[in-house]
Amino acid sequence: MKITKLLKEIKEKENKTLSKDIVELNQQLTKLNLDAAMHKLKNVKSIQATRKQIARTMTILNERAILKANEVTK
């Protein structure tokens, strides 16, 4: 999936859904790290991809929080 499509998909989701996604992605990352430690993981790049997905999602949530804070102060 291209990054622009992925970002568009993330931006369309609500904050609660994004928070749930972050929790699920963190659980997935933990599992991937354990599998990598036990040499069961074949695609090590999936760890990096999951980290990036978490970062993208958290960035969108932080941008929304900043925008909301700016609207309140105006």
Give a topology summary.
Blueprint: H1 3-12, H2 15-37, H3 45-73
Structure description:
The chain is mainly α and 74 residues long. It has a single domain (14-73), classed as Orthogonal Bundle (Helix Hairpins). Helices cover 84% and strands 0% of the residues. The radius of gyration is 15 Å and the shape is elongated. The relative contact order is 0.13.
Largest beta-sheet characterization: none
Q: What would the principal axes of the Cα set say about the shape?
A: elongated
- Rounded average pLDDT: 93
Give the uncertain stretches in residue-range form. none
Can you give keywords for this protein?
Helix Hairpins
Describe the structure concisely for a colleague.
Helix content is 84%, strand content 0%. It contains three helices and no strands.
